[in-house]
Amino acid sequence: MDITERFLNYTKFDTQSAEESDSVPSTSKQLIFAEYLKKELEHEGFDDVELDEKGYLYATLKANTKGEIPTIGFISHYDTSPDCSGADIKPQIVHQYDGSDILLSEGIVSSPKKFPELLQHIGEDLIVTDGHTLLGADDKAGIAEIIQAMVYLQEHPEIKHGKIRVAFNPDEEIGMGAHHFDVEKFGCEWAYTMDGGDLGELEFENFNAASAKITIKGVSVHPGYAKGKMVNANALAAEFAKLLPENETPETTEGYQGFYHLLGIQSNIEQAKLSYIIRDHDRDNFEDRKRFIQLCAEKMNEKYGEGTVATEVKDQYYNMKEKIDPQMHVIDLVLRAMQETGVAPKVKPIRGGTDGAQLSFKGLPCPNIFAGGVNFHGPYEFVSIQSMEKAMAVIVKICELTAGYND
Questions:
Q1: 18-71 residue pLDDT tens
Q2: Residue 213, strand partner residues
Q3: What percent of the chain is predicted at pLDDT more than 70?
């Protein structure tokens, strides 16, 4: 089985996660795919294949050489985003893409005018959708690349490597992927998530992240008799939102710039609830942003009375750079592997989070490597077969280079 067939098999499974769920994994259909993967790993000759009750799948490729070689790992998530349907995916292969518009289905076109990323893949074979679902390259491409790389190492015993662990987990797309990951059981000195985007991307910096829930109490009075009595929570919600800087939102920032993002408002006269996420790469700026949210609430309470506005701010994850910087050999190995496999590195910060960030703070340094997919979470998602093959080659080379790490 080649990497393309492997990936296409994975797209047959609907593994969409669900934010509103309290179960682990968040959807039972994820376990169906996990069971399929477990059987595949056993068939491919992996050792120590274990699927726990929460849907976390672990396996081992034994070392084929002796010596003090660090045990390393590769990780991908198998859930797909709640943002777009992952059911009944109909992938199509565009052979030797020529740079023109791609007709996904009647009336649905993926055009380089709208998605210029396509032009970086002229001459390659692209796997696309039919325009009605996402593709699932985030992150089933990563799974295919990891397993294919391990199979390649088994078929080429002349490539020396140490013990390698692999793991596949649910619920990354809803921020829960690392919560039940057993780092101790995984038993690696460091690992890599194969969950990045286009060819060459390498990420070991991400946002510090928090959520903020703002609750505003109003007073409902008949509008004909409301003077001096009514407190309109709808109006106060709009006033609170205006206190935050207009030029510090996702649509006005890029690179290392942080933001406040208003996710939603539920509101009537008596009560309003605003839901925000707070993001910043710099830890000090991150703390300042959280304090500013609190100050805005205090300002509103001074104006309308104590208890009118309440805030609940919770940290979600932190910038993995804090944990990677002291162990830059983890990054150096990737850069060398990319160089030796003909991949130009694109080191960039993640304007978001990753399982690797949470795992890094659980004691497992875990930067993020490209899986090759583009335009995640929507019907214009695509992945280059050649990019997947390159990602597989990078994994193989990392394993080979790690075998000589202590030489």
A1: 988 999 999 999 999 999 999 999 999 999 999 999 999 999 999 999 889 999
A2: 275, 312
A3: 100
Residue 248 appears among annotated catalytic residues: no
What is the reported pLDDT for 353? 77
Dump pLDDT digits (tens) for 246-276.
999 999 999 999 999 999 999 999 999 999 9
Following CA atoms 367, 372, 374, 379 in sequence, which dihedral angle do they give, to the nearest 10 degrees?
A: -120
Q: Which of 399, 386, 400 is nearest to 96 (CA)?
A: 386
Q: Of the residues 14, 40, 79, 138, which is catalytic?
A: 79
CA distance 385 to 377: 19
Strand partners of residue 234: none
- What pTM was estimated for this model as a whole? 0.88
Please say if 407 is a catalytic residue.
no
CB 373 within 8 A of CB 141: yes
What is the C-alpha R_g of the chain? 24
Instruction: For residue 142, give Cα distances in angstroms to 7, 161, 192, 219, 283.
Output: 9, 20, 11, 52, 30
CA angle (121 as vertex; 348, 335 as ends), nearest 5: 35
Residue with more model confidence, 114 or 352: 114
CA distance 332 to 370: 16
Q: What is the mean pLDDT of the chain?
A: 96
Which residue is catalytic, options 14, 40, 171, 172? Answer: 172
Distance of CA 111 to the CA centre of its chain: 25
